[in-house]
């Protein structure tokens, strides 16, 4: 606030006077009095300033000396007032500030309220707008309806007019109709009166009739009553009859109850008996199980004996249908676990279409390379013990010979055939024996093509060098010394060499098989072992032979070179058959020299070697006749005994083996006795149990197994023997062929486990297949069957039959040179 203003806010004093406390201006002459202290108290600041100015002016003008005290007091007062005013002003400002603050807050609140009010108002506004919109649309609709109603109203009005017109018309019509009806009514009334009188007459007539009818009803009631009484009588009679019937029914029930009790008793007795019977059967099952164990052991022993006797083993392998052949019909009807095989020609449902063969083993199409090798392994391993072993694959083109011997894919060990697996196994075994033996293994591989021997392990040149063959008595035991010998120490070496060999192998094309091998390939593994303890040397060699296809020449449609090839192949296969046969006959002369193949294999086909033949079959029905001739050949081979295999070491070993043979024979006879005991002792006709017979001829074991099976099925001894004897009529053959009608019987009798139910045939054949061993065995005694005709037939059986019966004939005629006399036939029971 301006200092020139007093506390009451009065106006400025005049320039020449002072303003007093009431706001009036003081004259300048009174100033000195006012400056006295008590009067200054109430002076305003403006007047004080004026006083100060006056004093100062006076002082300047008059130069008075008492001025300073008064001035000082005035100034002091002035300052105090100024201070008070300032503090008042400050307080006033503070208050004002607080007031403003509260006002501001209030206003802010109001602002907020107003803001929310504004938002609410806006929303409301929006709603109202919407409602307005709705009302507008509603209004429009109502207006539309109203328009429609107006139109309707006009239409109704028109209708009303029309109706009015109609009504007036109708009214006129009604008037007319009423008049006509009235006249009609009068007429009808007249008529009614006439009819009434008529009806009254009729009613009196009817009443008379009713009286008559009532009379009749009464009569009828009397008649019905008498009938009812009669029926009642009858009912009583029936009731008596029913009572009698129910009485007898009760009696029947009691009777049936007692029968039931009896049946229950009988059932109980039966159950007990069945339980006892079950226990007996259990005993029989146990016995049968033991019997089977004994059978298995016997079979093992038999195999060992057969091994020692030197029987040529025959394994039959059936190849599966190739891709794209799945729709083809198969000729294989049955594959038994014990080497039985039934082939049939499904396209010809004739009697002879079923044929049974029996070999050491039959591998089904699903058999793996490993399965095949596992059964071959023991034979291969004996090479390390100094034995000569020959394994060859025989069969028509495309039947799987190369698959079995070599395998389809060398790079995959699972596909390896017998060749690779054999060498692999030999390496493995020689390693495990290295502490007691030191082995050297060498490999030769030759091919016999058109009767020329060629080395397959030299680098291929355009012209093959034909090699000479030495006989096996050469000091080094090599049949083809000129063929390169390759020492091998690992499977990798073998793989490398055989790859070279396979590349070099001559492959020709025929109509039957594009890849058909038209040559025999012979892989020979030579093993030389030194016993580190005794320094004794043993030598063994293994011939692994993949023969060329055995099919007939006419079928392959070959001409020219191919015909010549086929003739050579057939000639060598015939020669192989002849050699095997001569060995079986113990002939003085064995015709090794008839073919290069037999010359090469000489050391492994002799009496001291172990021989295994894989018979390969194509299951395709088109190959049926080839299959049969292959199987016939194999069947003949399977019965051939070459004599005990001998190890190529000192004689001590042979003696040991002979001892082993007699020990095995003893063990076998014991087993036979045990088996007879299990089967229930002696036979009914007093003959010694067959086991005793068989113990004398242990090589009959397979047949014996069959006999046992027959007996289990309840066929009489005599009967079965007769049949078995009859079979030998077949001559040489190891008697395993049979006709079509036999198949079911064969299944039932030889393979009781076969699931196929036997089909009843009208003519049961008198022959049963006879496994080869029985016929071929030298020590076989004629079986006492009580049927003289069968034994006569056995005696009268042809003495010799060609071993090469199943072989193609073209080569024989074309070569013009047949095997040595005696080699073309075989005795039915090969005697030793
Ligand atoms: N067990 C099998 N499993 C699968 N395929 C097989 C079997 N056996 C043979 N094959 C196939 O059948 C075909 C013919 O087989 P392979 O060449 O071994 O017959 P082959 O008898 O050696 O014929 P060739 O007389 O011409 O030498 C081949 O494609 C082969 O892979």
UniProtKB/TrEMBL annotation:
Alphabetical list of Pfam families matching this protein: Kinesin
Ranges of biased composition (kind: Basic and acidic residues): 667-677
Residues in coiled coil: 125-191
Binding site for ATP: 395-402
Bias-annotated ranges (Acidic residues): 704-721
Tagged with keyword NAD: no
Entries under InterPro entries matching the protein: Kinesin-like_fam, Kinesin_motor_dom, Kinesin_motor_dom_sf, P-loop_NTPase
GO MF annotation terms: ATP binding; microtubule binding; microtubule motor activity
Keyword Iron-sulfur carried by entry: no
Keywords linked to the UniProt accession: ATP-binding, Coiled coil, Microtubule, Motor protein, Nucleotide-binding
Compositional bias per record (Polar residues), positions renumbered to this chain: 781-804
Region (Disordered): 666-739, 754-832
Gene Ontology CC annotation, any one: microtubule
GO biological process terms, semicolon-separated: microtubule-based movement; microtubule-based process
Biased composition (Low complexity): 808-832
Domain Kinesin motor: 311-640
Family membership: Belongs to the TRAFAC class myosin-kinesin ATPase superfamily. Kinesin family. KIN-14 subfamily.
PANTHER family: KINESIN-LIKE PROTEIN KIN-14J, KINESIN-LIKE PROTEIN KLP-3
Protein's recorded name: Kinesin motor domain-containing protein
Origin species: Lactuca sativa (Garden lettuce)
């Amino acid at each position: 606030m301006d200092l020139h203003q007093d506390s009451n806010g009065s106006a400025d004093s005049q320039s020449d006077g002072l303003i007093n406390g009431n706001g009036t201006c003081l004259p300048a002459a009174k100033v000195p009095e006012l400056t006295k202290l008590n009067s200054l108290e109430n002076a305003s600041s403006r007047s004080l300033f004026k006083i100060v100015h006056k004093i100062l002016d006076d002082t300047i003008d008059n130069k008075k000396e008492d001025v300073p005290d008064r001035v000082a007091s005035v100034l002091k007062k002035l300052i105090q007032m100024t201070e008070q005013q300032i503090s008042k002003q400050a307080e006033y400002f503070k208050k004002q500030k607080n007031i403003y603050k509260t006002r501001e807050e209030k206003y802010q609140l109001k602002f907020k309220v107003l803001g929310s009010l504004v938002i609410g108002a806006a929303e409301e506004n929006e709603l109202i707008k919407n409602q307005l919109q709705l009302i507008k649309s509603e209004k429009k609709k109502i207006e539309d309806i109203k328009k429609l109603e107006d139109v309707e109203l006009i239409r109704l009005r028109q209708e009303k007019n029309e109706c009015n017109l109609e009504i007036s018309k109708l009214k006129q019509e009604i008037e007319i109709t009423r008049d006509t009806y009235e006249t009609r009514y009068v007429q009808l009334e007249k008529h009614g009166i006439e009819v009434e009188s008529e009806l009254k007459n009729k009613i009196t007539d009817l009443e008379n009739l009713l009286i008559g009818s009532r009379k009749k009803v009464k009569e009828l009631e009397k008649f019905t009553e008498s009938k009812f009484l009669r029926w009642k009588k009858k009912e009583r009679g029936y009731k008596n009859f029913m009572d009698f019937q129910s009485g007898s029914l009760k009696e029947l029930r009691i009777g049936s109850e007692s029968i039931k009790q009896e049946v229950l008793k009988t059932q109980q007795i039966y159950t007990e008996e069945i339980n006892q019977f079950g226990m007996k059967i259990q005993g029989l099952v146990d016995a049968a199980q033991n019997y089977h164990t004994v059978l298995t052991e016997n079979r093992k022993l038999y195999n060992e004996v057969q091994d020692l006797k030197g029987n040529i083993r025959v394994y039959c392998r059936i190849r599966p249908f190739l891709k794209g052949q799945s729709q083809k019909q198969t000729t294989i009807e049955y594959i038994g676990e014990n080497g039985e095989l039934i082939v049939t020609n499904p396209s010809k449902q004739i009697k002879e279409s079923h044929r049974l063969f029996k070999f050491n083993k039959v591998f089904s199409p699903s058999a793996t390379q490993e399965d095949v090798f596992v059964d071959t392994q023991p034979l291969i391993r004996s090479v390390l013990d100094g034995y000569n072993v020959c394994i060859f694959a025989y069969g028509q083109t495309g039947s799987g010979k190369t698959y079995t011997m070599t395998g389809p894919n060398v790079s995959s060990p699972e596909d390896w055939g017998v060749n690779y697996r054999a060498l692999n196994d030999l390496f493995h075994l020689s390693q495990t024996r290295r502490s007691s033996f030191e082995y050297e293994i060498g490999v030769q591989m030759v091919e016999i093509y058109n009767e020329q021997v060629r080395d397959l392990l030299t680098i291929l040149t355009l012209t093959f060098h034909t090699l000479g063959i030495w006989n096996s008595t050469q000091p080094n035991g090599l049949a083809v010394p000129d063929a390169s010998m390759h020492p091998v120490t690992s499977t990798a070496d073998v793989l490398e060499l055989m790859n070279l060999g396979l590349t070099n192998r001559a492959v020709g094309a025929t109509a039957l098989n594009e890849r058909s091998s038209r040559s025999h390939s012979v892989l020979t593994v030579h093993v030389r072992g030194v016993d580190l303890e005794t320094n004794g040397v043993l030598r063994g060699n293994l011939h692994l032979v993949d023969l060329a296809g055995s099919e007939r020449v006419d079928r392959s449609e070959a001409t020219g070179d191919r015909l010549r090839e086929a003739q050579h192949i057939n000639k060598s296969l015939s020669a192989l058959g002849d050699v095997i046969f001569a060995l079986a006959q113990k002939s003085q002369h064995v015709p090794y020299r008839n073919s290069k193949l037999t010359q090469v294999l000489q050391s492994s086909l002799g009496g001291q070697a172990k021989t295994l033949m894989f018979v390969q079959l194509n299951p395709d029905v088109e190959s049926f006749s080839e299959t049969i001739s292959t199987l016939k050949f194999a069947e003949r081979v399977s019965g051939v005994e070459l004599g005990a295999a001998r190890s190529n070491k000192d004689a001590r070993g042979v003696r040991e083996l002979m001892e082993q043979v007699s020990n095995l024979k003893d063990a076998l006879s014991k087993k036979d006795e045990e088996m007879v005991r299990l089967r229930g002792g002696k036979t009914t006709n007093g003959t010694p149990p067959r086991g005793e017979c068989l113990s004398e001829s242990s090589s009959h074991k397979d047949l014996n197994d069959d006999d046992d099976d027959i007996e289990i099925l309840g066929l009489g001894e005599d009967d079965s023997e007769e049949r078995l004897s009859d079979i030998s009529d077949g001559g040489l053959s190891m008697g395993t062929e049979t006709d079509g009608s036999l198949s079911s019987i064969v299944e039932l009798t030889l393979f009781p486990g076969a699931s196929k139910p036997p089909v009843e045939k009208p003519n049961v054949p008198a022959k049963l297949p006879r496994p080869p061993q029985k016929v071929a065995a030298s020590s076989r005694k004629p079986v006492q069957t009580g049927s003289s005709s069968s034994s006569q037939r056995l005696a009268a059986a042809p003495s010799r039959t060609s071993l090469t019966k199943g072989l193609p004939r073209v080569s024989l005629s074309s070569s013009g040179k047949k095997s040595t006399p005696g080699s073309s036939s075989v005795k039915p029971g090969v005697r030793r």
